[in-house]
Amino acid sequence: MTSPPPLDGLRIIDMSSVVMGPFATQILGDLGADVIKVEPHQGDTTRHVTPMRGENMGWVFLHANRNKRSIVLDLKDPAGKEALLKLAEGVDAIVTNVRTRALDRLGLGWETLQARNPRLILVNLVGYGAGGPYDGRPTYEDLIQGVTALPSMLVQAGSEEPHYVPMAMNDRAVGVSSAVALLAAVIHREKSGRGQQIEVPMFETMAQWVLGDHMGGKTFEPPLGPAGYKRTLTKERRPYKTRDGRICSIIYTDKHWRTFMELIGQSEVFRTDPRFANIGTRTDHAHDLYAYVSQAMQERTSAEWLEVLLAADIPVTPLHDLDSLIEDEHLMAVGYLPVVDHPTEGKVRQVRIPSTWSDSQPTIRRQPPGLGEHSVEVLREAGLSEQQIATLIERGVTVQPGYAPDEEAV
Description:
410 residues; alpha/beta; Rossmann fold; formyl-coa transferase, domain 3; 2 domains; three-stranded antiparallel sheet
């Protein structure tokens, strides 16, 4: 037996869409929070990304919206806005990627929300922080990759042309940062009794990640050298070609290098070549040393290298593609991708919650919801009467498929 999940009792309104905000709130939902996803009539845009089995249940949506309930509200309608404010009175936090000025125009800005719930935490996910020339500009994953220099660094590291990393790495990284910020604000509120507004900008958050790795000599004033980490930017840093394929390995510590050089019969070179002396000299000569290893790797097959490097405790893995990643033996052994029965979508492959807890284990309590699946349930919890709910549905302010009002209650 375990305790309830760690965030049991925390209630969050998710007014975000696409990946960044929904991923943040899915993390919080996985940890036990009650997440109420507020959607427009057309739903989150990821509901429409193919392939899909059922209408409005695209595969991207399925991987960022479990452990949530869905309510449809037209926030441009005064009754829809009032319903949202009524919901806000009874929750701990709101997460949104609606731009701040747009929230103000809707009448759902910080001052309005705080007046209804002084303990509320509002987390605004924005492209760029307030006060700079980019403030208020729309942005997406690819733009943040570009403005934080990732495509340029890929060229520096060997790509022929600038290109984007083929995953929503910024959306997911900022989503994690947002979840951490929200939880810190909850702790602050428990100490002070006060809610607050938090702005989490994509650009500044990811610039921290990039510059933490690549500020290099420009850390110092005046600079001691150029920006960039030589070891990670060398063109030779890539999966090593073997006699029959490729593998991924990193030879990093003194012990790794000493052992590897013994394996290839070059112990004397390790002892006498000053480039191998320490991590500093190895970093200065990263291009040459990666090339040195690359040449040696071509002397054996991938299977041979995997066996010998694992035995020598040198970090090594196969080079996966997407299909082999899904079938990876470790992921299979830990049950990371179980096939589950979704209430409407049939059998779907699900990504397991990655962390394991000795007590209060987070669980997947709800599969990703249909559009408006919980509209009536959530509005009832907010204190709206059956008559009020029926009126909202009749006016098209909210929807719930299959709902029939209780005539006696109405």
